[in-house]
User: Fold these one by one.
Assistant:
Number 1:
Amino acid sequence: MNKGKKIAVYCASSTQIDDCYFKDARRLGQLMGEQGVTLINGAGNMGLMAESANGCLEAGGKAIGVIPTFMIKEGWCHDGMTQIIETTDMHERQAKMAEMNDAGIFLPGGIGTFAEMTELIMWKQLGLYLKPIVLLNTCGYFDSMLNTLHQAIKENFMRPVHADTWCVAPTPEEALRMALETPLWDTSIRRFAKI
């Protein structure tokens, strides 16, 4: 049923983080592999990027990495991916991952993950990206960011309808379910982009 589906997993490359994040990243990858869902990520060979890809691959799944040339030259590329797609820069990488996926799941990460998340939410708000966006809120990691987004809504920097551009999941199982089952965004809501 989910064969042929591709989900982008956005997350940290840091290795100096709590084990709870690694457990959820690996579990999500395993679930995707078991269900025949292809994982797309930034092809990093460290942190949650590597952990989620390894979980997927070990479960018999496919993992596609999208990575800029400069990162390959730095030796940051995971050498076990099913496929590597090389891009010229970070902007092309983000656009390619968004184009290829059927949904995006965000695991905890740093500024790079935040940038990817807010850009995808902004594209969805404008009707440029219609697919599900799911935040896997491991250990309550995204609580502060969600408070900030809701503050933006409260103070009329965003509309209440924009809170529907993302879903929040407490577990990898729920994150994958939401990514596979959440309907596409309605482009007519674009008219609400302007406050």
Number 2:
Amino acid sequence: MSTLYDKLKGYSDSDYYGFHMPGHKRRGIPAYDPADVRMPYEIDITEIEGFDDLHHPRGILKCAQERAARVYHADETHFLVNGSTVGILSAVCGVTEKGDTILVARNCHKSVYHAIYLNELNPVYLYPGFDSKVGLNMEIRPQDVRDALERYPDVRAVVIVSPTYDGVVSDVTAIAEAVHEKGLPLIVDEAHGAHFGFHSVFPENSNARGADIVIHSVHKTLPSLTQTALLHMNGSRIDRERVKRYLGMLQTSSPSYVLMAAIDLCMEELESRAGEMFGAYAGKLCEVRKKLSGLKCLELIRTECYDISKLIIYTGSIEFTGKELYRRLLSEYHLQMEMAAGSYVLAMTSVSDTKEGLERLTNALFRIDNKIGAQTIDECPRTGGLPRAEVVCSIADAERKVCADAAECMFVPWDAAAGYVSAEYAYLYPPGSPLIVPGERISEEAVRMLFWYRDKGFSVEGFKRERYVEVLKIKREIQHGKL
């Protein structure tokens, strides 16, 4: 039986080209000769003399983190070797107390919900706008933030995601102003925006736009290894020592020096060569987007506030779904996309993309475009983006009931689930934003979406039993027929 290493090596030796994470695109750091890059085994160490300690940095790691803070214009920056997830968990838990109320964008990553669970928080949801044509969740509106803060004066912190997995950018400056007027901290999950601020074609990063805590996944859009990320802290509205205590608890006690070295090399590149790297990248990217604007049946999507590094190819006017386009690009052209949604595919680009790789994608899309005819697709039954749901109890209370007494819960089939209070999550991964959250009353809309995604071949994750939902035995308030 072959090992995982054998499979990885075989994939590396193949002609498959990746428009997905990580951002190094299997090419390493541009300024370094691949022949000079040591294999991980040769440089994999622990906390030995002269190499500092991530949890108590005083030497080379302290200097490395200070450089990262300079690069991103943050007051203080910390290396993360457990991905952005550990940064989000530490940030949310570090700025709240048990049982606090928190204002959260409903399209946040599941790690935000896990932090809500860990600190037994009561979430108030901000719903993003929605593009019903493409089936794309849009930005969080600053006025919605202001209205929610007026309506819920006991909110203690605000969390949004910008850019989203699909590249939609919110007005972080205006949102920060609204949040700070109430004396509250703003946490921005900017995991997909680690490349922001290095060229005028991209927005400024959220440190420069007023956020108190910003989390970046260096590996997503920059040349760094998977799991590498950064947590930035700014200003005096947060207890930085408390956030750092959570980092100490939640990050591994044996941080990988290979991963930390990857972050540091990436920061060195950004500090010394960002203008050169991003100038060339922006030129290639703008050229590709200009060419793709000539597609006839397929369509390159760009919203008003958008990260142009994400190429969203919409298939909504043709005979096949985003999943079918994804399959064709992979099987016929050996181009691996990041994700397929109901009506589009997502291709992630980075500074490490080659001109040849981008041309392969462009040529493949035009060949497919020329072969297809315009027909109406069976649209995903979304009327307003993420399904709106009534919060009946906290995530922690729902989980507590599940753990305490199995008699408090039962499994119901999807077509009978509307009206019940969910005891488990349901989400598509990627991107990892839940359709259903424990403690929420399941809506008819959520059930329709589950069936639509299943029928189109998508994997709906989170359920303990296939096509069943675990629910709490609480009185139902919705009557409905079979779906």
